[in-house]
Write a structure and sequence with these properties.
This protein is α+β, with helices and mostly antiparallel strands. The chain has one domain. It is about 30% helix and about 25% strand. The protein is built from 4 helices and 8 strands. The protein has an 8-stranded mixed beta sheet with strand order 5-6-4-3-2-1-7-8. Strand 5 and strand 6 form a beta hairpin. The longest helix is centred in the N-terminal third of the chain and has 16 residues.
């Protein structure tokens, strides 16, 4: 049995998420941000920035996020899907919950977009520069800004070649 470290595992489940999420209507861009784009040897989560149009299917995206987070949690890691509009505004994160109703653990200010967006600006807000120029865009085209660790670069090109034209 092959044992892979958390970093390799997170990269694997991240690209599985990208393959599924790219098919959701209304998604305009998927980018990787955070520690997986650095040489940090033991990242604790996978961070993804998804740029969405007004007609995005938030419920489908939230479902794929729950699958990503569930996979990451099997290794005591996490995952966050940060959301931005096509004009570069941060709108929050996908909701962690399968059903929308008031919860003690809900960290957002309010439930938005039919309950699938957590607007927890008091906890976190992405910088405009990160939204405009994330370190790694993986869909619809690959855009690399700066140096990427060899493992994520290798996985990126492996995924891209498997996907075909």
């Amino acid at each position: 049995m092959t044992v892979i470290n958390e970093r390799a595992f997170l990269i694997e489940v991240l690209f599985r998420f990208v393959q599924e999420a790219r098919l959701v209507a209304g998604i305009r861009r998927i980018a990787v941000v955070g520690s997986l784009t650095t040489l940090k040897p033991d990242p604790k989560d996978a961070d993804v920035l998804v740029t969405v149009a007004e007609d995005v299917e938030f419920e489908a995206l939230a479902e794929f996020r729950r699958k990503l987070k569930g996979a990451a949690q099997t290794r005591n890691c996490g995952a966050d899907i940060f959301l931005a509009t096509t004009d570069g505004h941060y709108i929050g994160r996908t909701c962690s919950f399968r059903e929308c109703h008031p919860r003690v653990r809900f960290k957002g200010i309010s439930c938005r977009q039919g309950g699938w967006v957590c607007d927890d600006f008091h906890v976190l807000r992405l910088k405009d520069e990160l939204i405009a120029k994330p370190p790694l865009e993986v869909w619809p085209q690959v855009v690399i800004r700066g140096d990427l660790p060899p493992d994520i670069r290798e996985s990126l090109f492996s995924q891209h070649s498997q996907r075909g034209p």
